[in-house]
Amino acid sequence: MPELPEVEVTRLSFANRIAGAQVLGARLGKPLRWPLGGELETLRGRTVLGVRRRGKYLLIDLDQGLMMLHLGMSGSLSFSLQPPEAGKHDHFDLHTTQGVLRLNDPRRFGAVVMVSGEQDPVAVKLLGKLGMEPLTTGFDPALFYEGLHRRQAPIKQVLLAGDVVVGVGNIYASEVLFLSGIRPTARAAKLSRPRVRKLHQAICDVLARAVQRGGSTLQNFSNADGEAGHFQLDAMVYAREGLPCKACATPIRALRQGQRSTFFCAQCQKP
Ligand SMILES: [Zn+2]
User: Fold this and answer.
1) Tens digit of each residue's pLDDT, the chain (271 residues)
2) Ion ligand 1 neighbours, Cβ < 5 Å
3) Ligand 1: centre distance to CA 139 (Å)
């Protein structure tokens, strides 16, 4: 599943190249997760102003309206001057004067949604509950502490919920909790300020590193299924049940939280 760093790497891969382009037309294949919310025809003649990201949504600003794109479980985007003929998993093409943006999505949990802007009720419904953006200066340790302090759930589940901070998916959650020495089952509200500060730093470091590294491994995740991702290659705890902790050699333990697998070192990570 593409996580926030992969979505950001995707954005960086075409944002500059598509900016300023005029839309020549669009093609929709099989239905995606949500309805398009408008007529493809209305896209013709629009100008692409730029591409932003909010959580795992790519926001393509047009001179009139906004196109929201989500990669779902298995989606990937390409932007090229002359793409091959659309294959059976290519479900959306945006033809522009500067190239063709194509969504390939075998499982079709991805989405393309046209809205009038970020204030559109559909956009508000999709984006309104998203937490802070971890790769921006708006992700402030004090605000993060306040957000966590209101939550009684285990910290791992609060991170995955994405309403305090976005972008910490299942693999990243296990990793950042290891790096900050916090047991995944610890209650979010009980974490002290110094521990939250450590967690905040780990999230910033891990996600920024993943984006930096992402460019060269784009292919890996775009074809990946489930939770396979390039980050696993050097994971400290994720998917390492029974293997010695890289810091203290204690066997890594696994547990289920909210139907998701969690990995941790009982020695390095305190409740
Ligand atoms: Zn350890």
Assistant:
1) 788 988 998 999 899 999 999 999 999 988 888 878 888 889 999 999 999 999 999 999 999 999 999 999 889 999 999 899 999 999 999 999 999 999 998 888 899 999 999 999 999 999 999 999 999 999 999 999 999 999 999 999 999 999 999 999 898 999 999 999 999 999 999 999 999 999 999 999 999 988 887 743 434 444 333 344 455 557 899 989 999 999 999 999 999 999 999 999 999 999 9
2) 245, 247-248, 250, 265, 267-268
3) 28
Spatial CB neighbours of 46, under 8 Å, sequence gap ≥ 6: 22, 23, 62, 63, 64, 65
Question: 230 CA to middle of ligand 1, Å?
Answer: 22
Q: Which of 56, 102, 195, 253 is catalytic?
A: 56
33, 54, 246, 260: the catalytic one is 260
Residue 150 Cα to ligand 1 midpoint, Å, equals 29
Active site residue 2: yes
Rounded Cα distance between 152 and 12, Å, is 36
Strands 57-62 and 66-70: antiparallel
Q: How far is the CA of 245 from the centre of ligand 1 (A)?
A: 5
Q: Per residue in 234-246, is it b (16+ CB within 10 Å) or e — as a string?
A: ebbbbebeeeebe
Between the CA of 247 and the centroid of ligand 1 the distance, in Å, is: 5
Residue length, the chain? 271
How many angstroms separate the CA atoms of 7 and 214, rounded? Answer: 10
Residue 166 is given by DSSP the state S
Could you say which of 3, 6, 8, 175 is catalytic?
3
